[in-house]
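Weekly structure sync - notes
Attendees: PM, LS, DV (DV joined late)
Agenda: review two folding runs queued last week.

Item 1: First target. Sequence and structure tokens pasted below for the record.
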Amino acid sequence: MTSDMTMAINLVCNLLMALCGMWLLTERSMSRVVRIYCALIACGGAVNAAGMLAALTDFRDFSYGYVWPGEVVVNIGATAMMLRWTWRARRRRKGLAIDAQPAA
């Protein structure tokens, strides 16, 4: 993968993690500790995304550095997990069945 591609994938993952972390912060069914972890993930994702956007737009000669492919893979996994948790929380709030199995 090229450096620009890993940066773009990492940017999308960090933005999604920040959004999901902020959503899950308000989820009452999760313990306070888990919500604090979600807040930390949201802050980290937001700061990383801001840094990558600054580097991509050459804001005041800001340099983000090299994005390692391993970092991207970890962020893809964390993003998938956060999206799943957010989807489940959203369905729970709407009163919909979580992981409903089709009737056989």
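Item 2: Second target, run right after the first with the same settings.
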Amino acid sequence: MKKMTMMNSRRTRNGSTRTKKVSIFVLQRVQEGKEEEAKEILMENFKKQQNGTFSNEDVHSFLPRITALLEEGKISEVQALVRQFSMTFNKTGDSR
């Protein structure tokens, strides 16, 4: 039982670290004044991931919503990140 707890703890900590890195990456590319809206979108998706309710639909609806908030020259960087995430999600059905 202790091993499972350690594994779950590690997964949560790693997921939290990844969530923070993704948030920072995306928020650094958001248009000035759009940060709060972008944070809301990110937090909504991260919460669904945590609850296990995040779906492939969520992956695909995220991109147009966040793209509208990004600086023009930064869109391709975030699209690449989402594509990478989408491939991982599609293979496992789990975003963690």
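Discussion on item 2: Residues 51 and 75 are 28 Å apart (CA to CA).
Action: LS to circulate a short write-up before next sync.
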